[in-house]
From TrEMBL:
<feature type="transmembrane region" description="Helical">
    <location>
        <begin position="6"/>
        <end position="29"/>
    </location>
</feature>
<dbReference type="Pfam" id="PF01810">
    <property type="entry name" value="LysE"/>
</dbReference>
<dbReference type="GO" id="GO:0015171">
    <property type="term" value="F:amino acid transmembrane transporter activity"/>
</dbReference>
<dbReference type="GO" id="GO:0005886">
    <property type="term" value="C:plasma membrane"/>
</dbReference>
<feature type="transmembrane region" description="Helical">
    <location>
        <begin position="41"/>
        <end position="66"/>
    </location>
</feature>
<keyword id="KW-0472">Membrane</keyword>
<dbReference type="InterPro" id="IPR001123">
    <property type="entry name" value="LeuE-type"/>
</dbReference>
<keyword id="KW-0812">Transmembrane</keyword>
<keyword id="KW-1003">Cell membrane</keyword>
<feature type="transmembrane region" description="Helical">
    <location>
        <begin position="163"/>
        <end position="181"/>
    </location>
</feature>
<feature type="transmembrane region" description="Helical">
    <location>
        <begin position="72"/>
        <end position="93"/>
    </location>
</feature>
<keyword id="KW-1133">Transmembrane helix</keyword>
<protein>
    <submittedName>
        <fullName>Lysine transporter LysE</fullName>
    </submittedName>
</protein>
């Protein structure tokens, strides 16, 4: 398998995984619906930055060490699970508030770019299964004779670009339907649904032994 074949094959796999509904998609959609385009893109960039860091770590072997260390993996897993449950509870509380205020939005009703970026970043970084995925998959797509670091970073970047394109489509779709999505009932439903997804992922991650 040459480098071109490896990149194309990985891109196909990455595309399928990217469009599969999951935590990252739920976070970005929720940001688009409740906070607007700017916050949604900040969340998406945070998620993608976290994924790229995991990909780079896998390429240089850091994630391999993490998955080989039971203590390190457990520490990251528990921290990630707690963070996801925390975010989920906040979103559900926001959905249940009768006054319509969202505790995650500032007094000026404009969430900061840094806060939404950080939410996407840390949600991804605190999920060790992302690192485990790269450790398991990347070696299969590195052709013999090629630099593992260079090819690993290239493949992680390809996956990142696919995710950014997917998130852009989600955000554009949400903006096109903003009249409907801006309704309080819809926003509360999205908050409650995303919160439930986060809690579910957090509990599943926390109870996982792999």
């Amino acid at each position: 398998m040459d480098l071109t074949h490896a990149v194309v094959s990985f891109a196909l796999l990455g595309a399928l995984l990217t469009i599969t509904p999951g935590l990252d998609t739920a976070l970005v959609l929720r940001s688009a619906v409740t906070m607007g385009r700017r916050a949604a893109f900040a969340t998406a960039l945070g998620v993608n930055t976290g994924a790229l860091i995991w990909g780079a770590a896998a390429a240089v072997g850091v994630s391999a060490l993490l998955t080989a260390s039971t203590v390190a993996y457990t520490a990251v897993r528990v921290a990630g699970a707690a963070y996801m449950v925390y975010l989920g509870v906040r979103m559900i509380v926001s959905a249940l508030r009768k006054d319509g205020r969202n505790p995650e939005i500032t007094v000026t009703a404009e969430p900061t770019w840094l806060s939404t970026f950080g939410k996407g970043l840390f949600t991804n970084l605190l999920n060790p299964k992302v690192g485990a995925f790269y450790v398991a998959v990347l070696p299969q797509f590195i052709p013999a004779g090629e630099s593992p670091l260079g090819v690993g970073l290239l493949l992680a970047l390809v996956h990142d670009l696919e995710a950014l394109l997917w998130f852009s489509l989600i955000i554009s779709g949400a903006q096109a339907a903003r009249g409907f999505l801006a309704r309080r009932a819809v926003r509360r439903t999205v908050d409650a649904g995303t919160g439930a997804v986060l809690i579910g992922f957090g509990v599943r991650l926390g109870l996982s032994s792999e």
